[in-house]
Design a protein that fits this description.
This protein is an alpha/beta fold. The protein has two domains: 133 residues, 3-Layer(aba) Sandwich (Rossmann fold); 182 residues, Glycogen Phosphorylase B (Rossmann fold), CATH 3.40.50.2000. Helix content is 34%, strand content 14%. Helix 3 packs across helix 4, helix 8 crosses helix 9 and helix 8 packs across helix 13. The protein is globular.
């Protein structure tokens, strides 16, 4: 017997946190639009990340939750709609609370808490496969007849983003007749960051080839990014904290390549189609946040202490941080050259 396919008129997708987490929903959003073109698709997310989806043609509405927003108020607003499908891709305290407040048939994406904990604490791998979060999200829509299409995440940019990037590049003296490489040294946790001195050495080597370098990031990364750019010479400039998410996306799109750690910039870059070299330390592929279906290479070290965390931490548990410290800039430069070749 063929499975029953739900044909919804309104779909709510909840993914509140992280740049990467939101962008990794876009393969599912694309599949939902393709399979159910008549349905109205609303995404509820943190207002900081709304620009990641604002210009995505597969989404009808992006609802942004502000820092002082009341989930009670959002629940009252959502109850005014008749969502045929409510998809919780978050699975945290906030989204569980929302599921209690908004009636309807909720679907929750599968989580892998136990396998993650076992892998971290015993190094025993219980994962049947290293499934990207982009594909894990599809488990929430089993009765909607959608499957991954094998395409990468999408970060759709506006014309205003291109204007913003052009203006900043002109002010920074970065000319369009030279190759441009972008670097994203920031990350939400200290142990996810490659050492600043390594970034400086890598950027210096890249600019010595005749390229310009832009160090990107958000407000929290501005001090680190500025320090790295200043120490990397006259051909490097920092846009961290100076551009919107959309503007940063436009910079990444213009770059010939992006070098990053386990951070949101990784998925922003793959979402605009730019080749990526990603440096991974405490986290591993099984946790679902490696580049998805992209022109990308991950640089990592096979160490017995990896993984030690799903999200990184303040300090290395063993106080050596060898997972990232042992990655040499010259080796990363060779990976970059092979990627671009």
């Amino acid at each position: 017997m063929s499975p029953v396919v739900v044909v919804p008129t309104e779909i709510l997708v909840v993914r509140l946190s992280s740049i990467g987490g939101v962008l990794l929903t876009t393969p599912l959003l694309r599949a939902l639009r393709h399979r159910h073109p008549e349905a109205r698709l609303t995404v509820l997310t943190d207002e900081r990340y709304a620009p990641l989806l604002k210009h995505n043609p597969n989404v009808d509405q992006v609802a942004g939750v502000g820092p002082n927003a009341s989930l009670w108020a959002w629940a009252r607003s959502l109850r005014q709609h008749e969502f045929g499908c409510l998809l919780d891709l978050e699975g945290n305290v906030q989204s569980r609370f929302l599921r209690r407040l908004v009636p309807g048939r909720w679907r929750r994406a599968e989580r892998r808490w136990l396998a993650e904990r076992v892998l971290i604490h015993t190094k025993r791998n219980l994962f049947r496969e290293a499934l990207s979060d982009a594909e894990r999200y599809f488990t929430v829509a089993k009765d909607l007849d959608v499957v991954p299409d094998g395409q990468p995440v999408e970060f759709c940019l506006s014309e205003a983003a291109d204007v913003e990037a052009t203006r900043w590049l002109d002010q920074a003296g970065i000319l369009s007749d030279r190759p441009l490489v972008a670097f994203a040294p920031g990350a939400r946790a200290a142990t996810l960051r490659w050492p600043a001195d390594s970034w400086v050495e890598l950027i210096t080597r890249v600019t010595d080839t005749g390229a310009d370098a832009v160090v990107v990031g958000g407000h929290a990364d501005a001090t680190l990014a500025t320090d790295i750019a200043v120490r990397s010479g006259a051909r490097a400039a920092s846009s961290a904290g100076l551009l919107s998410l959309q503007g940063t996306g436009a910079i990444l799109k213009r770059a010939q390549a992006v070098l990053t750690g386990d951070s949101g910039a990784l998925h922003m870059a793959t979402g605009v189609g730019t080749p990526v070299v990603a440096l991974f330390g405490p986290t591993v592929r099984e946790f679902g946040r490696f580049p998805y279906q992209a022109h990308a290479t991950v640089v990592e070290r096979d160490l017995p202490c990896r993984p030690c965390s799903t999200r990184g931490g303040h300090t290395c548990p063993l106080q050596h941080h060898e997972c990232l410290r042992s990655i040499e800039p010259q080796g990363v430069l060779h990976v970059l050259a092979r990627l671009l070749a």
